[in-house]
Request: fold
Amino acid sequence: MKILHTSDWHLGQVLYNYDREEEQTAFLLQLEQIVRQEQPDALLVSGDVFHTPAPSAATVKMYVRAMLAFRTACPAMTIVVIAGNHDSASRIDCDRELWRVAGITVVGAVARGDDDVAARHLIPVHDAGGELLGTIVAVPHCYRLPGDAFFADLLAMADRSRPVVLMAHLTITGSDITGHDNIGMLDSVPPAVVAGYDYVALGHIHRPQFIAGGEHRVRYCGSPVAVSFDEQCEHSVSLVTLNGHDVPQVRTIAIKNVCPLHTIPASEPLPLSEALQQLEALTDRRQCYIRLNVLAAEALPVDAHDRSVRVARAHGHRFCTMRVTSPRSSEREQYSLSAQQLQELSPIEVAQRYVAGRQGRDLTEREQQMLQSVLRQIDEEDHS
Reply:
């Protein structure tokens, strides 16, 4: 069974007031060509189809056209789409029956109550002759799973004589979140929770990677187009071949961004005038998004933004923002936290680090008492 694994399209994103429809359309056309060439048995879109829960009509139209183009490019292919944390589960689900007519399965929300769990989450994959090739277990993003054994219970429902693939939108403990401004949720699950599946097609983390402890079966395919300047990694989709229950063979297929994101200079910050000189010398002649990496011991000149815009426009680029570093910046770095570190701290400890980093002081006794009071109220409401 051959599957094409992709996720985190973030269609409709506006980057610093710039509409990204052109480059997102270019990605979808590349994906259509990959489908046409590879003729996979299944296309899996593991969440964050849209950048916002309420995408514009133009964005939805772009999405619909692409999905129908994928179906035309490979008529026998199984297509499954799940909602991510950026998507509206109800908006994804509301067109579920309509998409079924086109042979496309969408899963916006996890089964609850009297829902038929198998009917909602287990999607068989057949070849052109109708023979079962494998099963896709589709689990969209949710803040609280129905139970600790939910993934194992779904696996037990599947036909194990063929490969079983889990697609989910969540954070796996130990994943590399480098480049993420916000991972969308703090809860993570250990690789053992998704053990037993022949392949786990994850979405949510934008850096492509296999997860340590996942036996080379648990993978984030990554975002096909950079969502932020800090996503300095290859952007691609993953083509996965499963032969029975053997370790899957994975090939990445790079996606070319027609309007890339550049931080200038890429490494150490420079004074504004030197950073602008490097922008003028940029060799990438495509239209690019620009973030200047500026060193400033004091406040920048009032015309710094205007100067940056003029230089970028003169060379056909889009100036977005500056990352300004001052001597005090390194002092604040000691208060920065990874998501994993954040999970290990109490709310009071998080607040203490924040105040220390921003104001250079400790929480007062009264502030600590107020926070404890609020936390008690929240706990009481959760258990009421």
The chain has two domains: 2-254, 261-325. The mean pLDDT is 89. The first helix runs from residue 21 to 38. The CA atoms of residues 238 and 252 lie 5 Å apart.
